[in-house]
Here is the input.
Amino acid sequence: MNVLQAQTLAEQLQGLSDSPELDVELLLCHVLQRSRTFLFTRADYQLSDSECARFTALLERRKLGEPVAHLTGTRGFWTLDLEVNPSTLIPRPDTETLVEKALELIPATPARVLDLGTGTGAIALSLAQERPAWQVVAVDCVPDAAELAERNRCRLNIRNAEVLLGSWFEPVNGRFEMIVSNPPYIDPQDPHLLQGDVRFEPLSALTADDQGLADIRTIASQARNYLQSEGVLLFEHGYDQAQAVQAILRSLGYDRIDSAQDLGGNDRITWAIWTQTPDTGA
Ligand code: GLN
Here is the structure.
């Protein structure tokens, strides 16, 4: 089997995946340890017996629904290649909207930034890499996820970020210029949990009580004790939660509340400013 023939096997994923051709390309790149450019320029490359066996085994697992990111162990996010495993969420392109907004909301000058529920470290590590003057603290309460984020940090050699294990604010001290989070926000009853990649991701990273709003409410309430005056709180949330998240922030006393859409045109992020912390000059 050559590369071109392997690519035609994408037809076996029709109806089982939203992106059969891309899936097969990523699996081939993984098995061959080559870039996608190689696939196009060397379509005649003959797979060895071992490469062939590994590729067809991964294709079979993909047919059963396993996410490509779990099969290859990596996912590209922002400019980073992140190690991924079943202990946490697979980074989504939607979350890049949050990274983009976070980079806009506060200046590139020295600042403390906190990422709650970091998972692979996708948000924290992207921000730390883009803003060398920021000190980014990444927190996750799942030991395997915190270890994964720390491995990603080390491998990418990002020194202005640290990963801490604990529940939300439990392991942190002091105040931050910005707090960001992509917390669990799916209603436990949402039928979409039975479809696609989410079936292979931990519910601890996906679902929250109170129609998916419980963790957002907890974080928003406690964040008031951890934000500097004029500090920013920024959430990712479900496509239909912007109004509810705005109402929570308003009721907690935040100002300048606003939302923005992801690339798919869905309301996806909401942020607000905390203006009430007395400025101690510290
Ligand atoms: N956006 C993800 C999904 O809908 C969920 C992410 C999350 O719960 N934080 O699959």
